[in-house]
Amino acid sequence: MSHNTPLSPRPLHHLSDVQRRVLTTRQLREHGVTASVAAERSRAGGPWQQILPGVHLLHPGPATSEERLLAALLYTASRGQGADGASPGGDGEPQREAMITGLAALALHHFSSAPPLASLDRIDVLVPRTRRLRATGFVRFVRAGTLPGPQYVAGVPTAPVARALADAVARLTDAVLIRRLLTESVRHGHCEATAVVAELHSARLLSRPHVVDAVDALLAEGRAIAEGRLYDMIRGHHLPEPVWNVELRMPGGPALGGVDAYWREQAVAVEIDTRAPRQDEEVWRGGFGRKREHLERLGITVVRVTPKQLRETPEEQAAVVRTALIAAADREPASYVVVLPR
Its domain of life (predicted)? Predict the structure, then answer.
């Protein structure tokens, strides 16, 4: 077979442009190119190059970021299917469980504080812990017992932001960059602060000195954004104006705790629940739950909303608050409490 032999008998029209430029040894064979011919064309100075073991770039120039991402996924999918670099299927799409994570994923999610894809020496790929894979070239593996559902960004299976952040932070030592990445995740609406903290906790990263301050800044940013959404929800849905950010106390007695919004006449309070999703029941009983039970024994209705609910379903949360305010007319009067600025 000469160098000019067309890729046949299988046509390439069903593949995207990048899929036509990055193919595994097996895919090339399916298109009529033997392994020996692929190896010959991929020698130094040839028209092709072997970008990763069993994965060929069908042009001599540098690989684009898109080509590197596809090559990483094809290499990951092909391992364990034979020494010829078999692809998971003939359509050019990696089918095995794998997704881009870490800084590469954050770049795909359009993080302005993440380095551009083209500048990354390594592309992290999240795979099941059971996969036997070795890092090679620009591909590095992150293993997990349970993989999250991927998000497809520009057609690339990509780890959700919170998981990608945890995988990136695990390899970073630059405290300034970590803080920027974490803050951007909530400031630009990629995810909630509690979701990020949960992933960092799961990865056992919260005790690292260069992570602690960044997490404090993240939580402060997340709370400020949630408070802004609460203001918008109440005013945007024409609810009565409450008093904001107050502490409730028994007359001459102990503090009952702070709430984010309070309607004195109806004895209805709204509290933003910023607990991480995986905090256990003991934490709930020891803090949030005990305070809520105490207030409700005094006849005060406590409506708890999460930052995610305020972002995704503000209309539903406004309806809950409105219902609580209307229902106050049918309840026994609440105990008198002192309301102080917080």
Answer: Bacteria
The identity of residue 127, as a single letter, is V
Q: Which residues contact 257 (CB under 8 A, 6 or more apart)?
A: 247, 248, 291, 294, 295
Q: Rounded CA gap, 68 and 52, in Å? A: 9
- For the stretch 55-101, pLDDT in tens is 999 999 899 999 999 999 999 988 754 333 333 444 445 545 799 99
Beta bridge mates, 152: 157
Quote the tokens at residue 65.
């970021």
pTM over cut 0.90: no
The number of residues making up the chain comes to: 342
CB 82 within 8 A of CB 88: no
> Beta strand 268-272 with 301-305: parallel, antiparallel or unpaired?
parallel
